[in-house]
C-alpha cells in the first residue's frame, strides 16, 4: 500500500482495483485491508494513556491508516453501487468507519481523510451516538454517518423502474424487441406491439407459451415482464379470433403487406435515434462487467446485465436490417431500403456510433441479403462506392487495423464496437497465464485493465442534446422496439421467395 500520489502509482492502484476479482474475493480484500489498518491498543499507567503499536511511531501509524483509507475511497468511488449489496463489504465499511471515528482523536490528520471518506461513500448524517465505539461517552458531539438504504438493494432483484429487453414473438421465428420497465403491464406491451405491426390492439391478445406447449393469456393489468422472464416460456401475440387454437400469425402474410415506414423517415434522424439509444445502454456499462464477462468468476448474468443488453442490441440491429429488406417484396422499394441503410450506416459513423455502424454493415452483408443480385444491380454507383468504403472499416485483416485507426482518431464521446473490445480482453486472458510461479501475473492484469479503461476515454464527455426532428413522432418507438426475424433459415426462405434462384 502506497500513498499513490504519482500518476504511475495511481495507475497501478487502478489496475489492482479493476482486476482484483480475478485472483481474490471481495472478502479477501476486506480482510487484507483490515490487517493493514493499525489498531490502537490502549492501557492506562499512572493516569496516562499508552499506545502499543509495536515499533511503529505515530507518523508511521497515521501514514498506514491514510493509505488504507485512500485505497478504500478509490475502491468505492470506482465501483460506486456495484458492490454495495455485498455483505462482506457492508460489514467492512462499518468496521473501518468505526475505527476511523475512534482514531481521529489520536490522529487529527485523519479528519480530512474521514470527511473525504464520508463524501465518497455517500453517507448521510444521523444525529445519534456510535454505539459500537469504545469511547462513545466522550464523542457525543460527533455525528454518526450510516450507509444509505438504497445500497442494500440486491443487484439480482429487479426494481420497478429497471428497464430490460423483452421479446414478444409474432411468429415462431420473429419477434418485436421491447425495451420496457419491469413494472410494465400486459396492456402496455400489447399497445407497443400492435403499433409496431400495425394491427388493431383490440383484436390482439398477449399469451405466454411454455416450451411444453402450455398457454396462458395475460390479462390487461398483469405484469407482463415478470411472466415473460421465466426461462421455460415465451411471450406471443395472437389474434383474438384465433384464441381457440391460439395459432400465431402466419409467417409474412400480414407482415409483408405492411407499409415500409422507414422510407419516409429522415436518415440522419434515424441514425441519431439509434445513437441515443445505444449511448443509454453503453453509458450504463460498468467496467467490471468486461472482467466478469471474460473470466466468469461468479458465472451470474447479473454481473454483466448492462453489457449483455448492448450486445443483444447489436445483434438485433443486424437482424433488423435483414428483416426490413427481406420483408419488402417490391423490388423498387427494396432498392430504396438498401440505399437507406447505407446512408444510415454512414451517419452512424459520423455520429461516432461504431456499434450500430458495424451492425448495419453486417446486416447488409448477411448472406440472405447479399445474394439479392437483382436488388444490388439497381443500386446506384455512388452508393456502391460509399458502401465499399464503409465495408473497409469492418475489414478484420491485421487485427481490424482499419477500424482501430479510425476509432482512435475519433474524439469522445464515442461508442466502440463492443464485441471487438471483448475479443481484445479475451485474447489477453487466454494468451497469458494469470499466475506465474504461484505469483499473480500483474503484467497480464495491467494489459486487461488498460483495455477496459478505454471505456472511460469513450465516455469522457456526454453526447449533446441533439434530438431527431419532431415531425416523425413514431421514430422513437420504431427504433426502441425493433421487429426482427431471428432465424437464418426463415431469412433464407424469404430471400429465395422474393428473388428465386435462377
UniProtKB/TrEMBL annotation:
Claim: rRNA-binding is one of the keywords in the record: no
Domain Ras-GEF: from-to ranges: 266-501
Database matches in PROSITE patterns: RA, RASGEF, RASGEF_CAT, RASGEF_NTER
Domain N-terminal Ras-GEF: 1-122
PANTHER family: GUANINE NUCLEOTIDE EXCHANGE FACTOR, RAP GUANINE NUCLEOTIDE EXCHANGE FACTOR 5
GO molecular function, one term: guanyl-nucleotide exchange factor activity
Swiss-Prot/TrEMBL keywords: Guanine-nucleotide releasing factor
Gene Ontology cellular component terms for the protein in this record: plasma membrane
One Pfam family linked to the record: RasGEF_N
Name of this protein: RPGF5 factor
Domain Ras-associating: 162-243
Species this chain originates from: Atrichornis clamosus
Origin: domain of life: Eukaryota
Any one biological process term the GO annotation gives: Ras protein signal transduction
Gene3D superfamilies reported in the protein's UniProt record: Phosphatidylinositol 3-kinase Catalytic Subunit, Chain A, domain 1, Ras guanine-nucleotide exchange factors catalytic domain, Son of sevenless (SoS) protein Chain: S domain 1
Signal peptide interval: none
Amino acid at each position: 500500500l502506497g500513498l499513490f500520489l504519482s500518476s504511475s502509482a495511481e495507475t497501478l492502484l487502478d489496475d489492482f482495483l479493476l482486476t482484483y476479482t480475478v485472483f481474490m474475493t471481495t472478502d479477501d480484500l476486506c480482510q487484507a485491508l483490515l490487517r493493514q489498518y493499525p489498531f490502537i491498543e490502549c492501557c492506562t499507567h499512572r493516569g496516562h494513556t499508552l499506545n502499543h503499536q509495536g515499533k511503529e511511531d505515530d507518523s508511521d501509524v497515521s501514514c498506514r491508516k491514510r493509505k488504507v483509507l485512500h485505497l478504500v475511497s478509490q475502491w468505492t468511488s470506482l465501483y460506486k453501487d456495484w458492490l454495495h449489496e455485498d455483505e462482506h463489504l457492508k460489514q467492512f465499511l462499518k468496521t473501518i468507519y468505526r475505527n476511523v471515528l475512534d482514531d481521529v482523536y489520536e490522529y487529527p490528520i485523519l479528519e480530512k481523510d474521514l470527511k473525504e471518506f464520508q463524501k465518497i461513500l455517500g453517507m448521510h448524517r444521523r444525529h445519534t451516538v456510535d454505539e459500537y465505539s469504545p469511547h462513545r461517552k466522550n464523542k457525543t458531539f460527533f455525528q454518526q454517518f450510516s450507509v444509505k438504504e438504497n445500497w442494500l438493494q440486491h443487484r439480482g432483484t429487479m426494481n420497478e423502474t429497471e428497464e430490460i429487453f423483452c421479446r414478444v414473438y409474432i411468429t415462431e421465428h420473429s419477434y418485436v424487441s421491447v425495451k420496457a420497465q419491469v413494472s410494465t403491464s400486459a396492456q402496455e406491451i400489447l399497445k407497443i406491439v400492435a403499433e409496431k405491426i400495425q394491427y388493431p390492439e383490440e383484436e390482439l391478445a398477449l399469451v405466454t407459451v411454455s416450451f411444453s406447449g402450455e398457454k396462458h393469456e395475460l390479462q390487461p393489468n398483469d405484469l407482463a415482464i415478470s411472466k415473460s422472464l421465466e426461462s421455460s416460456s415465451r411471450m406471443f401475440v395472437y389474434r383474438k379470433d384465433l384464441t381457440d387454437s391460439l395459432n400465431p400469425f402466419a409467417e409474412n402474410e400480414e407482415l409483408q403487406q405492411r407499409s415500409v415506414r422507414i422510407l419516409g423517415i429522415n436518415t440522419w434522424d434515424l441514425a441519431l435515434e439509434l445513437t441515443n439509444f445505444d449511448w443509454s445502454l453503453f453509458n450504463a456499462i460498468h467496467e467490471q462487467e468486461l472482467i466478469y464477462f471474460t473470466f466468469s468468476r461468479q458465472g451470474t448474468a447479473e454481473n454483466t446485465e448492462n453489457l449483455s443488453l448492448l450486445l443483444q442490441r447489436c445483434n438485433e440491429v443486424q437482424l433488423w436490417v435483414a428483416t426490413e429488406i427481406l420483408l419488402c417484396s417490391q423490388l423498387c422499394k427494396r432498392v430504396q431500403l438498401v440505399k437507406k441503410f447505407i446512408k444510415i450506416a454512414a451517419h452512424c459513423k459520423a455520429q461516432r456510433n461504431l456499434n450500430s455502424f458495424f451492425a448495419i454493415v453486417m446486416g447488409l452483408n448477411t448472406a440472405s441479403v447479399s445474394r439479392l443480385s437483382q436488388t444490388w444491380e439497381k443500386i446506384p454507383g455512388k452508393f456502391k462506392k460509399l458502401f465499399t468504403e464503409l465495408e473497409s472499416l469492418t475489414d478484420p485483416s491485421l487485427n481490424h487495423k482499419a477500424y482501430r485507426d479510425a476509432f482512435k482518431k475519433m474524439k469522445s464521446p464515442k461508442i466502440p464496437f463492443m464485441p471487438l473490445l471483448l475479443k481484445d480482453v479475451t485474447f489477453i486472458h487466454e494468451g497469458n497465464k494469470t499466475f506465474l510461479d504461484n505469483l499473480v501475473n500483474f503484467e497480464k492484469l495491467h494489459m486487461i485493465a488498460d483495455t477496459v479503461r478505454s471505456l472511460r476515454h469513450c465516455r469522457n464527455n456526454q453526447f449533446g442534446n441533439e434530438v431527431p426532428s419532431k415531425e416523425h413522432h413514431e421514430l422513437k418507438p420504431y427504433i426502441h422496439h425493433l421487429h426482427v426475424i431471428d432465424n437464418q433459415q426463415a431469412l433464407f426462405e424469404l430471400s429465395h421467395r422474393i428473388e428465386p434462384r435462377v
